[in-house]
Every structure is written in structure tokens, then in C-alpha cells.
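Email to the structure team, subject: Linoleoyl phosphatidylcholine delta-12 acetylenase model.

Hi all, the expression group asked for a predicted structure before they design truncation constructs. Nothing fancy, just the C-alpha cells so they can compare against earlier work. One-line instruction: predict Linoleoyl phosphatidylcholine delta-12 acetylenase, return C-alpha cells.
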Amino acid sequence: MYLKGLGDVWGGTETSPLLLGVILITYLHHTDPLIPHFRGKAWTFTRGASATVDQPILGWQGDFFLHSVARYHVLHHSRQFFPKIPFCKSPSSHTQEKLTCLGPQHYHFCDRPAFVVLWENYNRCQFVDDEGDVVFYRDRKGRLAERGI
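Reply from the structure team: attached below.
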């Protein structure tokens, strides 16, 4: 079978760019060298829900067209933290203040450009250890990310 063009790769569907966008956003929210992965008895719903990164992907365009889903992703996972805030009413500085009050162990925010973070995380997040209840991504050489980055 020979591929004749990009349409053959994507299957000729119109939804592929949208699907790629969803995959990009999901990857950036859940793949970061500073976010722990919990296994076994170390996992709780709260820990799992907070193991994600808020990132204002595409700036104001992402806020407008994606309804701030990327900027307030932790809120999407954290109904137990803020059960009375409907997600559709979340975009506000007040919400950002509430999320930051969770503390650095439960709230992660990255305001660096999305494609820079994508490249860095792709290179820094290659695998996690096979053993352990709380593990972090490692790079190709097996190094953990620096905590100050």
C-alpha cells in the first residue's frame, strides 16, 4: 500500500486537526517531568486529580475558542476541591486565586509557550520507573528533571 499524501495519513477526515489539538492539550496537561505518577496505595482520587498542569494554550485565542479548558484544567479534574464552581463559569482571576491556594503540591501552572513546553516535555518525559508507588518521568539517559525548572 502506498500513501499518496497527507490525506491518506489522516484518513481524509475533517476532524483530524481538531483531534490533534485535543491530543496536544491532553499531552501537555498530563505529561510534565515535575508531575508525579501515583501507583498502588499511594494513589488517591485527590492526588490523581491534582496531577495535571494548567496551561493557557494559545493565549487569548485558546481561552476564547476552547472556553478556557486549557487554562483551568485542574478545575476540570477537581470537582471535590471546588464542587460549587460550574466549569463554564470558571474563567476569572478569582478562580485562579482559589486554585493557587491549593499549594504547590496540588496545583501546577505553566505559562510558557505551548510548543516550547511540548518539545521540552517530549525530550524530558521518556519513561517512568518500573517500581515505586510515586514515580516521575525520566529522560532518555534516566535522569530526573531538576526541581527548579
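The helical segments are 6-10, 16-30, 45-50, 59-65, 73-77, 93-100, 114-124. The chain has seven helices and six strands. Ping us if the truncation boundaries need rechecking.
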